[in-house]
Amino acid sequence: GGAGGRVGPDMTSIGASAPVDYLVESVLLPNAKIKEGFQSLVVTAKDGTEYTGTLARETPQEVVLRNAAGAEVPIAKADVAKREQSPSSLMPAGLLDPLSEAEQLDLFAFLSRLGKPGDYDASKGGVARRWRIAQTFHTDAQAGRDTWPLGAASDDKRWLRTMSLVRGDLTKALLADVLKAEGWSSRVGVFAATDVEVAQAGTFHFNLTANPATELWIDGKRLGSEGASSTALSAGTHRLVVRLYPKQLPPVVRLESRDAAFVLN
């Protein structure tokens, strides 16, 4: 659904646009057919250093490659000794070797459903998919810091990061897995944060699926609870935090907006 890097082709609707045999071949034999625009380029610098990646962009002064990690690598053309197209994909062969046959079948079944109507349709935007998760405990409450996640910056090291399911659901099971929760008795708060990007100031609308005990906060201020809410926002990035109570965790948290763009990377 737009989340992730740009090293390979967009997989959002791959199941609806490609037959299963093509998916199997592409994963098991990544060098057999490389999609146009994702061929690897090998650039050799005058000092002998080799750089490999897909071509991100090129100017009269430099070549910029995107490597297998998704990072952009600029190379000055004045330093280039040779450049040539590689016959190999950035995707390494043998990625599925550690998986059992059943796990491989599950993977291909998942890929074949991406983009089709139902639980695996990630083609529709307007839903939060990338989340930061935090929890607070009785010791935090005693010290008066049990709501620190409401104002924490996105790069705060205490955040734990996760993704929603394909359709945009952040489930109770996902939260428990991220927090490694064996029991919730010592916890006083669970917080799930995401960001929206606003291009132009205006009034923006949100819809939270959770339960009545859940609270929605934006930029450190309480906006509402479950259901629809709206607020005026200036241009820029804004932090949304869903505040949950451990003893009343909903089965699913889902945050949508028809006019604000959720940050996916």
How would you explain this protein's 3D organization?
With 265 residues, the chain is α+β, with helices and mostly antiparallel strands. Among the domains are: 41-85, Roll (SH3 type barrels), CATH 2.30.30; 130-262, Jelly Rolls, CATH 2.60.120. The chain has five helices and 16 strands. Strands 6, 7, 9, 11, 12, 14 and 16 form a seven-stranded antiparallel sheet that branches. A five-stranded antiparallel sheet has the order 4-3-2-1-5, with no helix packed on it. A four-stranded antiparallel sheet has the order 8-15-10-13. A hairpin with a 4-residue loop joins strand 1 and strand 2. The radius of gyration is 22 Å and the shape is globular. It starts with 13 loop residues before the first helix and ends with a strand.
Key terms for this structure?
265 residues; alpha+beta; SH3 type barrels; Jelly Rolls; 7-stranded antiparallel sheet; 5-stranded antiparallel sheet; 5 helices; 16 strands; 15% helix
| CATH topology annotation of the domain at 130-262 | Jelly Rolls
How large is the radius of gyration?
A: 22 Å
Which regions contain 5 or more consecutive residues with pLDDT less than 50?
none
The ordered string of helix (H) and strand (E) elements is HHEEEEEHEHEEHEEEEEEEE
Tell me the structural class. alpha+beta
| Average pLDDT level | 87
CATH architecture of the domain at 130-262: Sandwich
Distance between the termini: 11 Å
Query: How would you characterize the largest beta sheet?
Result: 7 strands, antiparallel
Strand content: 35-45%
Report the principal-axis shape: globular
Question: Counting H and I runs of at least 4 residues, what is the number of helices?
Answer: 5
CATH C-level class of the domain at 130-262 = Mainly Beta
Query: What oligomeric arrangement do these chains adopt?
Result: single chain
Total beta strands? 16
